[in-house]
Amino acid sequence: MPHDEYRTIDFFAQEALPVPQVTPTQAECIAAQRFGMNARAEALGSQQDANFLLHGDDGTALAILKIANPAFGPTEIEAQDTAADLISAAHPELRIATVLRRPDGSPQCATVDTESGPAIARLMRYLPGGPLSGPRHLSPSTVAAMGTIGGKVSTALRDFHHPGLKRVLQWDLRHADRVVAKLAEHIDEPDQRAAVQAATADAWARVQKLAAALPFQAVHLDLTDDNLICSPDGRLPMPDGVIDFGDVTTSWAVGELAVSLSSMLHHDGVEPHHVLPAVRAFHTIRPLSQEEAEALWPLVVLRAAGLVASGRHQAAVDEDNAYAKAALDREWHIFEQATRLPLPVMVHLIKDAIGLADVPARADSPAHFLLRDLAADDITLLDLSTGADSMDHGAWLEPGTEDRLAASALADGAAAVATRYAHPRLTQAPALSAVSAPTVPTGIDLWLGRPAVAQAPAAGKVLAAAPGRVEIALGPQVLTLSFPHAVHPVVITGATVQAGEDIAHLPSGTSVHIALHNADGPAVPPLVRPEYAAGWLALTADPAPLIGLRAAGRAQDRDLLDRRDAVFATVQEHYYAEPPRIERGWRHHLLSTDGRSYLDIVNNVTPLGHAHPRVEQAVSRQLRRLNTNSRFHYASVVEFTERLAALLPEPLDTVFLVNSGSEAVDLGLRLAIGASGQHDVVALREAYHGWTYASDAVSTSLQDNPNALATRPSWVHTVDSPNSYRGLHRGADAVCYGPEAAAVIDELAASGRPAGAFLSETYYGNAGGVALPDGYLAEVYAAVRRHGGLAVADEVQVGYGRLGHWFWGFEQQQVVPDVVCVAKAMGNGHPLGAVITSKSVADRYRDQGYFFSSTGGSPVSSIVGLTVLDTLRDEDLQGNAVRVGGRLKSRLEALADRYGIIGAVHGSGLYLGLELVRDRVTLEPATEETAELCDRMVDLGVIVQPTGDHLNILKIKPPLCIDAPAVDFFVDMLDHALAQLGHSR
Q1: What helix, strand, coil percent values describe the chain, rounded to 5?
Q2: How far is 343 from 336, CA to CA, in rounded Å?
Q3: Number of alpha carbons in the 13 Å side-chain half-sphere of residue 388
Q4: Is the pLDDT at 774 greater than 90, yes or no?
Q5: Angle, to 10 degrees, between the axis of helix 290-317 and the axis of helix 255-264?
């Protein structure tokens, strides 16, 4: 095909656009002869061009040799190169695949002969890092980055004009309807072809209503996962580069974002709602108009339809194009996701996400209430939300809870019971689920305690009437009543009804679903998933006014996090960038206000499980009687301290009660220093003990205090972390830690500063539950004691049976400390801590003054402490830690056989740590990968968080009541997430 300098492509004038037939050997000749570059050519896939990566003799990537499709003329190529240069200049933070230029500034470009005819070849800048291609799940930050790049490219090209942009491309969404019409015949499957054609017709009709208002400009039009290049310095896929300007043209500006969104939809685990971070990010840089927001998802559908039709066509006309054939399944998956929800739902969801939501529709005040002779005062509202008292004690999990609660209210005299519109129902949430359940109601449900007549609230037309259902058009809205099949409407389809005319006679005990939705919208399900609720609810109205109730309004808490940050010190961090709002817990489940149940894998604060009835009842009973300080004389503090002391070996017989682990460690150190008269303390590196002055001083975890080692006071001395996995001494060599720590203690004493205390966790928590080397504490305790110091054991995290085989961590080391500090598990969420020591040590505290804690050991705290001990015993939760913890650890170890990123499974019982590494030899911590995994897990219904100085260990410390189905779910989701995130052997 001869090259006319001013010719541009018209897709509809071409029979086909097969890739130029150029072999790697031919590409090497072109590079050498036309550009003076001796290189080895590696073929890269492409839809319509021939691309080669050129390598030097040492394997270094030199450039990309791009041989354009012969259908593309010089003017078009010049426009592409100019567009790339414009973006590169406007946004130097982005890496752009610009054309390489000669010393005189001219592009390294030449016309070459191919089997398909003359084609333009040029050398392009190679961007290392690789594209986002492939099935790997895209994290919210990656999705947002894609949107950010799209916004930057769009603003950079806004005022770009060039003759080479006047093209008619099959990828230009202005021609999507024609492309599908021309190529649909290549979709062999009749059902798929019909689906593509129908979706195209619907989306095209919607876009045409908006087309005149859509801004028009130069666009890249191919900012897909294939053409966005990841930063080579990042550990996670984070795009910062753009390649392939072959589709540069002038089109609707919003098409830039639509193309990018469509490419996200084939990635593992990505649903339509997952693309919203990209929409928000694009909108932040290049604001979308109302019309663009409404056109965006129809354009995504058109892009998806075009991909399917074009892909089938390309595979048919270019049989040797493996790249095109490999994309067929992916393109169909994109189409399925793009059409997963009705277009109006996605349009409203997008508008809501960027603050352009329409004013919610309202039900008109009816001329007659829907239910004759039933007043609002006769109706009891049924609260099924996460915060409802009726959801206590796990009632949300019981089958038939809604009917049972309604029946109870009717039995108490209510004439009717009604639910709330748009308020998520916890009763619809399964306990363990990888996806959210439909919990948000789009109408209301009503239970009748007496017979009632349903009457037309206004004049309208009956659209459908059949046993169990009637639909009536009331102006722009459709009223739907659903009731038992045995009830027959008294109106017929097609009839016109007047206000007050009978619709149906409803017997006592009937349940009725009432909904109002837009007459021109799609069918709306009774319950929808919270991620899509904003889109669905925009198509509905609250029907409550039709029965005399006030409209409920939609639950909004979007500003709650901002309000928290405004008044709650931000150093008190929260989990997750976009955290679910958790307002209820039950056993090992946490419940959000969206009605989503999450498996709790981190909460060692509640060993009995959340909201344990025995604790709740005990606290309530005691608060009704007395709560004061421990200077008063009452029985519970005596009984509790007796029970606590009895759990420890001799001579540990005296108890102090405080409110937290930090206070317990602080007091434990003061006791040791006071009893020994020696003010220096030896502690482990990479450990955390609390936030008070003393407990923080001995905390050397870099994550809790990055400057811990440099800022600790002079009286604190540290010894190596006895980590047998990644410490200085590993495996069998870990036996060296004990003698070395003892030597440090001896050296301190020799220097005239004998340690008054040695403090450590008895099972290494900050390292993810790594057991101390055998004999470690025995050797170190002996060293500190021979110089007059005391051994202080921090049992805050591991004590109270969490380790399974041992109630206290020090039992695993076969030692007895002089001072034991404990908290967390003691109160099952109530602030309660303790220090247990010998009477002789406790009595020496009087030399420093007296001790008093206002609420430490209060009647309520003491009762809580007793109740926790009783329940731990009665429910055999330590035994459960052995049984279920063993099952969990075994399954995690099996997972490690399949995923190289799992370096080790630490711990015992239900105190476990899953350490993630990039290399099992170097043990390079997989910090960013761990954070990404935690974010993916919460999306899959599991709350788990990282720990360790490198934040590369999943801390696995669930409530001790967790059961086998729950730990199996956790491991299954972990397996799922690791696979989705591209981890494998």
Answers
A1: 40, 20, 40
A2: 13
A3: 22
A4: yes
A5: 60
The pair of structure tokens assigned to 345 is: 């739902």
762, 791 contact by CB (below 8 A) = no
pLDDT at 4: 56
Contacts 24+ apart (CB under 8 A), 749-752: 749/787
| Of residues 827, 798, 813, the one with CA closest to residue 885 | 798
Q: Residues of 397-411 as b/e, b for ≥16 C-beta within 10 angstroms?
A: beeebbeebbeebbe
Residue 607: CB atoms within 10 Å: 29
For residue 713, give the 3-state DSSP assignment: coil
C-alpha–C-alpha distance, residues 404 and 402, integer Å: 5
Dihedral sign, Cα of residue 177, residue 178, residue 180, residue 185 = positive
Q: Report which residue type is found at 938.
A: V
**What tens digit of pLDDT does each residue of 62-98 get?**
999 999 988 889 999 999 999 999 999 999 999 999 9
First-to-last C-alpha distance (Å) of the chain: 49
Structure tokens of 913?
């740590």
Distance in angstroms (rounded) separating the CA atoms of residues 695 and 687: 11
The closest alpha carbon to 139, from 258, 230, 255, belongs to 230
**What would the pLDDT profile of 129-149 be if each residue is shown by its tens digit?**
999 999 999 999 999 999 999
Stretch 799-812: mean pLDDT: 97
> Which of the 8 DSSP states describes residue 727?
S
Give the span between the Cα atoms of 516 and 553, in whole angstroms: 14
Closest of 556, 591, 581, 557 to residue 392, by C-alpha:
591
Vertex 550: Cα angle to 549 and 555 (nearest 5): 125
CA 357 to chain centre: 24
Measured at the CA of 28, the angle between CA 22 and CA 32, to 5 degrees, comes to 130
In whole angstroms, what is the distance from residue 741 CA to residue 146 CA?
51
Joined together, the tokens standing for residue 611 give 């909201």
Which residues contact residue 837 at a Cβ distance below 8 angstroms, ignoring those fewer than 6 apart? 652, 654, 656, 668, 671, 818, 819, 820
Residue 1: per-residue pLDDT = 39
pLDDT digits (tens, 9 = 90+) for 837-853: 999 999 998 887 788 88
Nearest in space to 914 (alpha carbons), one of 970, 982, 979, 980: 970
pLDDT in tens, 576-601: 888 999 999 999 999 999 999 999 99
Lowest mean pLDDT among 348-352, 571-575, 641-645, 673-677: 571-575
Q: Would you call 681 exposed, middle or buried from its count of C-beta atoms within 10 A (0-12, 13-18, 19+)? A: buried
Please state the three-class secondary structure of 95-121 as a single string. Answer: EECCECECCCCCECEEEEEECCEEEEE
Cα–Cα distance, 936 to 976 (Å, whole number): 10
3-state SS string for 207-257: HHHHHHHCCEEEECCCCCCCCEEECCCCCCCCEEEECCCCCCEEEECCHHH
| Under 8 Å between Cβ of 924 and 917 | yes
Structure token digits, residue 242: 């753009």
> What is the pairing mode between strands 942-943 and 819-822?
unpaired
The answer to whether the beta carbons of residues 282 and 354 sit under 8 Å apart is: no
**Strand blocks (E) in 519-653:** 527-528, 540-541, 582-586, 589-592, 597-600
Cis peptide before 430 (omega within 30 of 0): no
Compute the average pLDDT of residues 684-708.
86
In the numeric block, the tokens 């685990």 are attached to 269
Largest Cα–Cα distance of the chain, in whole Å? 104
* Nearest one of 897, 868, 892, 869 to 953, comparing CA atoms: 892
Query: Token pair for residue 392?
Result: 């206590």
Q: Which residue type sits at 452?
A: A
Residue of 248, 221, 243 whose CA lies nearest to 162: 248
